[in-house]
Amino acid sequence: MARPPRFNLPDIPQHAIQRGNNKQVSFFNDKDYVVYLDKLKLYSKKYSVAVHSYVLMANHVRLLMTPETEQRVRQTNRTDNAAYSLSGAGKNRKDPTKAIRRSI
Questions:
Q1: CA-CA distance, 99 to 87, in Å (whole number)?
Q2: Cβ neighbours of residue 22 closer than 8 Å, sequence gap 6 or more
Q3: Average pLDDT, rounded, for the chain
Q4: How far is CA 34 from the centre of its chain?
Q5: How many C-beta neighbours within 10 Å does residue 99 have?
């Protein structure tokens, strides 16, 4: 059964979870965490999303974010995930182009 669509309300904090593709490890070393945080900072500013807190674990990320408009959290995470995957971080995985899948 498909998950019901999420409410994306502007100026309302949202809890987002991003898991490793097939629950695999996404971060293999400290550099991978730094690359992810750099991308998150870049795209949260670009899409006007306030990141209040984050937890980076080996196989998933939890974010508390407040968007200025309806689609901003989705845009930030989609772009951030793609940029992280294509950056070469997490290159110890079988398929580095799919490091993180969205769960928002």
A1: 10
A2: none
A3: 78
A4: 13
A5: 27
